[in-house]
Specification:
The protein is an all-alpha fold and 188 residues long. The longest helix is centred in the last third of the chain and has 25 residues. α4 packs across α5. It is globular, with a radius of gyration of 20 Å. It starts with a helix and ends with a helix. It has ten helices and no strands. 65% of the residues lie in helices and 0% in strands.
Length: 188
């Protein structure tokens, strides 16, 4: 317990001038090593590991070159679990009172009181499960159609100065704005 008292820095958000340079250093190391970062490529790697390359050329590649990315994925899952269960006090993110009022006007009474909206994740009704499944499929399709996920394009692709990544990131922002301001109010 005495060791954790000296780790107060890990409980708080790190400032931009620490996190930003750390991301930049990691990206420079990946560029130097000839690697690209992105979580969506792990799906392709796992399918190739399972033998999907025998029936589909997209999965026919040397998946062993991507083992490091699988370890990063596993580390993210384990790290998320450890941080939620051992390094946090289940704090609710601070959002503006205007946002809370707007969400409550859309029948999200848990806005500002819980980490995730209990109206969606607290009740696993058929409609909520279908909404999550359809949303996941659309994200998966969009990720493959765009040639990578937001982290892959926005962090790795832009670091490599790739024009397709810039176009994809602009599309992600436009899609997000359309969803939040156009479709989201219609759904809820």
């Amino acid at each position: 317990m005495k060791y954790f008292l000296h780790m107060e820095w890990i409980y708080n958000a790190w400032p931009w001038y620490v996190g930003g340079p750390l991301v930049a250093l990691i990206m420079l190391a990946l560029i130097y090593l000839g690697k690209s970062f992105g979580f969506s490529s792990n799906f392709r790697t796992m399918c190739a590991m399972a033998g999907a390359g025998k029936s589909c050329s997209f999965f026919d590649f040397d998946w062993r070159t991507q083992r490091w990315n699988l370890l990063f994925l596993l580390g993210s899952i384990v790290g998320g679990y450890v941080s939620v269960h051992y390094l946090s006090d289940n704090q609710v993110p601070a959002i503006s009172t205007e946002t809370i009022a707007q969400l409550k006007s859309m029948n999200f009474e848990s806005a500002g009181a819980t980490f995730v909206p209990t109206e969606i994740y607290g009740d696993m009704s058929l409609s909520n499960v279908l909404l999550l499944i359809v949303g996941g499929l659309l994200i998966g399709f969009g990720t493959r159609y765009a040639g990578g996920c937001t982290s892959g394009h926005a962090i790795s692709g832009l670091s490599d100065l790739q024009l397709p990544s810039l176009i994809a990131v602009i599309g992600f922002f436009i899609g997000g704005l359309l969803m939040v301001h156009g479709l989201f109010p219609l759904i809820f």
